[in-house]
Amino acid sequence: MFGTLSEEAEVKVPASKAWALYGTLEIAKHVIGNALEAVDVIEGDGGPGTILKLTFKPGFPYYYEKFTKVDNENMIKEAEVVEGGFLDVGFTLYRIRFEIKENPNDDTGSSCLQKLTIEYDVKEEFAANASFVTNEPLLGILKVANEYLLKSN
Q1: Beta bridge pairs of residue 11
Q2: Active site residue 53
Q3: How many CA atoms lie within 13 A of 9 on its CB side?
Q4: DSSP state of 88
C-alpha cells in the first residue's frame, strides 16, 4: 500500500538562505534537543550516500536514513530509511523529501516556500501500520529550522 503526506509553508528568508541550512548537515545542529534527541553522521559529508542515525524523542526508536538525492540546483533533498524504524514494522519504503522553492508571490525574493513530502509503501499484511506515518516530527524540524532562519536573517 503506497501513500504520501505533504506540507508546504512560507518562510520569510530568501530560498538560497533556506537551502544553505536544509541542503547541508547544518540543520542537524539546530534540531538536536528540540525535534530530535540525537543525529549521528555514520558516513558521508552531507551529499548523496550520506547515512545518518536519527534518534527521536521518547516514543519512537531510532532509524538510519540515507541521502539518495541532494540537488543543489533545484534545492531538493531526499532521504530514505535504510534500517530500523518504519522498516521494522512492515514498511518497504519510507522517503522524506525537502524542497525549497522561490515564492512565486514575492517579487522581492525575500521569502521562499518549503515543501515537505513523505512517501511510503507498506506490505499489505501490515497495512494498519500506515497509521504510524505522520508529518508531526518533521513539522517540528521545520519549525525549529524556521525559527533559526528568522533569527539569523
Answers
A1: 112
A2: no
A3: 17
A4: G
6 in Cβ contact with 116 (< 8 Å): yes
What's the average model confidence in pLDDT over 37-64? 88
Catalytic residue among 29, 53, 69, 77: 77
b (16+ CB within 10 A) / e for 1-22: eeeeeeeeeebebbbebbbbbb
Q: Where are the alpha helices (DSSP H) in the chain?
A: 15-22, 26-31, 136-151
Mean per-residue pLDDT, 140-153: 82
The residue to which cell 542515525 is assigned: 53
pLDDT band (50, 70, 90) for residue 35: low
Q: State pLDDT tens for residues 68-87.
A: 999 999 999 999 999 999 99
- Which amino acid is residue 87, in one-letter code? L
Q: Which amino acid appears at position 92 of this protein?
A: T
Give the list of residues 6+ apart from residue 64 with CB closer than 8 angstroms, or none.
Answer: 42, 51, 52, 53, 54, 81, 82, 83, 84
What percentage of the chain exceeds 90 in pLDDT? 63
With CA atoms as reference, report the closest residue to 26 among 112, 74, 98.
Answer: 98
pTM of this prediction?
Answer: 0.89
